Amino acid sequence: MTPATRGTNEDQLRALLDERVQAVHDRDARELTSACAPDIVSFDALPLLRRLGAAAVRARAEDWLGLDDGPVGYEMRDLRIIAGEDTVFASFLNRVSGTMTNGAAVDMWLRSTLCLRQSDGAWVIVHEHTSVPFDAESGQAALDLAP
Amino acid sequence: MTPATRGTNEDQLRALLDERVQAVHDRDARELTSACAPDIVSFDALPLLRRLGAAAVRARAEDWLGLDDGPVGYEMRDLRIIAGEDTVFASFLNRVSGTMTNGAAVDMWLRSTLCLRQSDGAWVIVHEHTSVPFDAESGQAALDLAP
Q: Which domain holds residue B76?
């Protein structure tokens, strides 16, 4: 894609997000993490506290998508994009649904933040943060919330 | 502060973060949320899934800091700042420690992401995301992780 046909930063980010939804659906960890910067800092919904680097993020995606049987739903809602000149970030709620290889059904809402910057004419993800809140009384993750 | 004395975007963000650490220490919810944009989107460590607007974020900060007795520790570690021209974001681990009014001690590590943009010459926080990961087997929030 030449610069002249790229559209706005926000358009480009929406296209990248659509590709990620498709990659999750297809359980394609390589495609899902193809836009990760080599030095990405990832705060994931599951431990560790953080992961450093694209290889660690890809390994986590392979673990996740390897536990599912069949297509994985990855609905995005309340997407908000703040597009600067050279940095962009997006926040959204996402509903992950599907069936695991052990037969268990998954259907939960998470919150996601993505931060990107331009590198050699392409957008790369330099930071991602995905989580659910937890109940302070019980210490349980709040897996049954919905927008 | 005049533009000529502002320093770099990264310097400005570091100063803002230092002010937030001090505000938590002082249990000053108003100061802590003084840089929040009116339309901030907040993904907090405790439910709801999200909060919209500075008033909701301030009310949550008042609830939090009102449960503490004495100064609150808010150590920041592994701060990473990506500073664009007009948008900036920061990710870091933060250790929250102190004693609650019921006598219980708190000492835990969280992950935080802040996204800011320039508005009338000042930086405002348009998005924040704070969380801990959870254990997929037990469903418990992982409150005992440390970097």
A: 3-131
Q: Do A87 and B91 make contact, defined as CB atoms within 8 angstroms?
A: no
Rounded Cα distance, A21 and A18, in Å: 5
Judge whether A24 and A65 are in contact, CB under 8 Å.
yes
Average pLDDT on A80-88 reads: 91
Least confident segment among A3-12, A112-121, B128-137? A3-12
Q: Is residue B144 one of the residues assigned to a domain?
A: no
pLDDT digits (tens, 9 = 90+) for A20-36: 999 999 999 999 999 99
Comparing CB atoms, the residue among B115, B129, B133 nearest residue A49 is B133
CATH code, domain with B60: 3.10.450.50
Give chain A positions within 8 Å (CB) of B113: 43, 113, 115, 127, 129
Q: Domain for residue B66, yes or no?
A: yes
Residues 6+ apart with CB under 8 A from A33: A54, A57, A58, A61
d(CA B7, CA B139): 45
Find residue B68's DSSP bridge partners: B100
The whole-model pTM stands at 0.94
Q: Between the CA of residue A6 and those of A17, A36, A80, A120, B91, what are the distances in Å? A: 15, 19, 20, 14, 29
The answer to whether residue B141 sits within a structural domain is: no
Q: A interface toward B at CB cutoff 8 Å?
A: 41, 43-50, 78, 80, 82-89, 91, 93, 109, 111, 113, 115, 117, 126-127, 129, 131-136, 139-143, 145-147
How many domains are there within chain A?
1
